[in-house]
Amino acid sequence: MTGRGADGISPADAAVAGGQVTGEVLTGDTLAGAAREAPGEHDASRADTRTKDNRAWFLVLPVVVSVAFTAVIPLMTVVNFSVQDIFSPTDRIFVGLDWFRDVARDPEVRAAFLRTLLFSAQVLLLEIPLGVALAVSMPRRGPWASAALVVVALPLLIPWNVVGTIWQIFARGDIGLGGWAVNTIPGVDFNYTLDSTDAWITVLLMDVWHWTPLVALLAYAGLRSIPDPYFQAAQIDGASGWATFRHIQLPRLRGVLTIAILLRFMDSFMIYTEPFVVTGGGPGNATSFLSILLSKIAVGQFDLGPAGAFSLLYFLIVQIVSYVFFTVLTRTGR
């Protein structure tokens, strides 16, 4: 029989309440009662001794095999080409990092890199604000909201080569509606096949037309996730439309805009099909981006060594810049 302390609480009661009694000897019955009153701790200790079933890893085995054949093995093949000078399937010489040095020092590659970087910067400066403005202007509810989503998403459904063909005809001054309108209404001599500035503007407008809807859809999804009480409170306080956008909508769009910026940078930095169909990299080298120059070296000249080193450097640049973008954007949001 256990006695009671000065405060009238027995050790058993104290053990059941939380085990905070110190300096007393607890009996077996007390410990058993405490264990019965704390089943969570008992179950946790029992769960730690269970054997883990690792058979679930076999479910991801098809994905691992697929990635190995579609990504890892081709990447290793490119690495193999980038360190060798290949004369024939059986005649090759190991050159180490020579191709990487040659590609990094090539003035044509540097010029193409600057053109691609400038194009990506212009794409982000145009498409992100336009996409957000389009998302804000779209209706939030009702049948018009569904109709607006379908209309906005139409350019995204068109394949890249078809987009290039459409703009190749549309921007022609003799047979294209867009080229004819520019030459007739403002009276400008627009010809993207001969003028490098016209070719650059054509490719830039084509990309803005094709991919701004992606930014708009992402921003629209972010706007739809904002609860209505936020807007009701802003309306009660008499906030203007700009104040509502700045203090309610824009902060809530930070996450989706980070995704939009990363996606649009990576895609615009690796753009190939559309400018190749419209201008072929010309006139001259005005629209010869890194992807078009890489295709010229790999397919046109069939220099597998420089092309392999070029592609690896290209891949590394995209990864580094994307990481910098992601780090800056996420730290700014904290």
Automatic annotation (TrEMBL):
Residues 113-325 form the ABC transmembrane type-1 domain. CDD domains: TM_PBP2. SUPFAM superfamilies: MetI-like (SSF161098). Keywords: Membrane, Transmembrane, Transmembrane helix, Transport. PROSITE patterns: ABC_TM1. Signal peptide: none annotated. GO terms for cellular component: plasma membrane. The chain crosses the membrane at residues 56-79, 112-136, 148-170, 199-223, 255-273, 309-329. Pfam families: BPD_transp_1. This is Glycerol transport system permease protein. PANTHER family: GLUCOSE IMPORT SYSTEM PERMEASE PROTEIN GLCT, TREHALOSE TRANSPORT SYSTEM PERMEASE PROTEIN SUGA. It is a multi-pass membrane protein. GO terms for biological process: transmembrane transport. Its main location: membrane. InterPro entries: MetI-like, MetI-like_sf, Sugar_ABC_transporter. Belongs to the binding-protein-dependent transport system permease family. It is found in: Cell membrane; Membrane.
